[in-house]
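Sanity check. The docking grid for NDP depends on where the pocket ends up, so I'm generating a full predicted complex first rather than guessing from homology. Inputs follow.
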Amino acid sequence: MVEIFHELDGELSILNDKTISIIGYGNQGRAQALNLRDSGLNVIVGNIKDDYWRIAINDNFSVFSITEATKKSDIIFLLLPDEVMNDVFEKKIKPNLKLESSLVFASGYNIGFKLLKPPENVDVLLIAPRMIGVGVRENFLKNEGFFSFIAIEQDFSGQAKKVLLALAKGIGTLKKGAIMLTFKQEAELDLFNEQAFGPAFGRVLLSSIYTLIDAGYPPEAVLIEMYMSNEMSFTYKKFAEIGLVKQVEFHSQTSQYGAMSRGIRFRKLPLKPKMAEILKEIQDGEFTKEWEKSITKLKFKMIKYFATKTKINQLEKQVRKSLKLKEYDIYEEEAPSEEEMAKLKSISNELKLFEQYYE
Ligand code: NDP
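Predicted complex below; grid placement will be based on this.
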């Protein structure tokens, strides 16, 4: 049975004599630091000296180097980008951890796939909001909360669950609900959404757009109809608020009949076997192994470059201009250098497939 925790499950007073440091005052860092402080907890910030440092000072936090903040704290939130976390952890955090302190992550990736190895004498906790940082703050201020996935990887102190639920309450997630998983499950769900649902949805969207463009409809009208109006994001919001099927009541009778009667034709799309294949690669760690290779970073640069050539980018640029919307520079991603191309020679056949895919 899944365990779901709410407001009464967390007891803030057990954190009264604890110092909490937020390492990384970015999207999640700022929101979580402000929420924890507004919940009456003792919060400091650890950051490199950059714009985020200044923002934290402006928000009236005591700000220290990452090393100093770690030394002063009992609870350390690691709110750095996942790809730099391991390096910062090894150099600045691990050597300065107090015995029985708690390390708190906002993503299960590094621990779930064993890329970051914490010492045995600390608690290792996860509070992963299903919400961007700005939403974490706004929903706290509105007293509504937000969903999170939480987990305990190590319980050295014997108090890990109490500390985790108190912190979850302080951040504001228990107002909505926190679901207990493992670090690996959280990471897998996140990766699956990004790698299976996201691209499959993208293909469906593009197929719809090109069906209409090829039939002669003006691109401006097509992009507005398909996504630029925000109508779809409103509908998506209604999925969450009242239910996937129930929300049809917001649409006309004609719309409902059309969608329901035609929907049956898409029943046999071969999506589930592909999605199961992607999920298995994630679960087996195959994806993580691939992403950790240094050549993959270069391959990624190349794929991104191909993606900028895709027809929708040009089409969107033209439509945004004619609708007088702000234009973005995604359309002109820097081409890889000759030296980089030479390094990619061993995977040139694979890259050719990506080039064709984005043509
Ligand atoms: P950000 O990209 O906003 O960066 C966080 C902070 O890390 C910034 O202060 C940044 O400063 C600092 N930073 C970056 N590189 C380094 C470095 N090499 N050394 C020291 N500090 C560095 O991160 P997010 O808030 O988006 O993500 C934090 C965690 O939250 C991740 O684990 C992520 O998976 C998780 N998460 C994020 C969500 C989101 O909506 N963004 C949602 C749920 C979870 P600077 O850029 O100036 O270097």
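Relevant for the grid: Residues 24-29, 47-48, 50, 52, 79-82, 84, 88, 106-107, 128-129, 132-133 surround NDP (CB under 6 Å).
Also worth noting: The chain is about 55% helix and 10% strand.
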